[in-house]
Automatic annotation (TrEMBL):
InterPro entries per record: Kinase-like_dom_sf, Prot_kinase_dom, Ser/Thr_kinase_AS, Ser/Thr_Kinases-Pseudokinases
SUPFAM superfamilies the record matches: Protein kinase-like (PK-like)
Regions that span the bilayer: none
Upper taxonomic lineage: Eukaryota, Fungi, Dikarya, Basidiomycota, Agaricomycotina
Protein's recorded name: Protein kinase domain-containing protein
Length: 187
């Protein structure tokens, strides 16, 4: 697959380099892109900041469909863990190997990617995750803290509550991508 050169790089590079980046707008665009995928039967399976680019026009572009699942068909490329994604962004049920990539797993990873956008750092920071923390993540009881860049106004508080639901240890309790996109689009 060939794609155009994206000068801004990944969404995390973009927010790092753009002082006036519209975090909320980027998250809204990202949720719209994931909504499009899910509506068309595509599960991405590896949503993370490195797989989200920002064009010169400020448009979010989702890439790296190497572990995606399309209408129940797996596309196997070079990943040995097809359908598994990247660990820090993975839902607990995927880490426990109870399932491969799912829409609910994409929702969990989307929430982690949003944290990445707001913190300019990968989920749980740049340090190694210890055994106890890893056990809490796998159990679905450990979640990232609220980023200081997320405003403490009514919109920011509602957004934070939505993110908390994205990380539910019970995948059936996570919001749908349609629900996420509609809430973000309303502002």
């Amino acid at each position: 697959m060939i794609s155009p050169w994206i000068e801004n790089g990944s969404v995390t590079e973009y927010v790092e380099n753009q002082r006036n980046a519209d975090y909320y707008g980027l998250c809204t665009q990202l949720s719209r892109a994931i909504n499009y995928l899910h509506t068309n039967g595509v599960i991405h399976g590896d949503i993370k900041g490195d797989n989200v680019l920002v064009s010169n026009e400020g448009i979010v572009k989702v890439m790296d469909f190497g572990v995606s699942i399309m209408a129940q068909l797996r596309l196997e490329f070079t990943h040995t863990g097809v359908g598994r994604g990247t660990e820090r962004w993975q839902a607990p049920e995927i880490l426990r190997r109870k399932t491969d990539s799912t829409k609910e797993g994409d929702i969990y990873a989307l929430g982690m990617t949003i944290i990445e956008i707001y913190t300019h750092d990968r989920p749980y920071g740049d340090t190694d995750i210890g055994h106890d923390e890893r056990c809490e993540i796998i159990a679905g009881t450990r979640r990232p803290g609220r980023p200081w860049r997320l405003p403490f106004d009514s919109r920011g508080t509602a957004f934070w509550a939505l993110l908390q639901r994205c990380w539910s240890g019970d995948r059936t309790a996570r919001p749908t991508i349609d629900e996420i996109y509609k809430q973000l689009a309303r502002g």
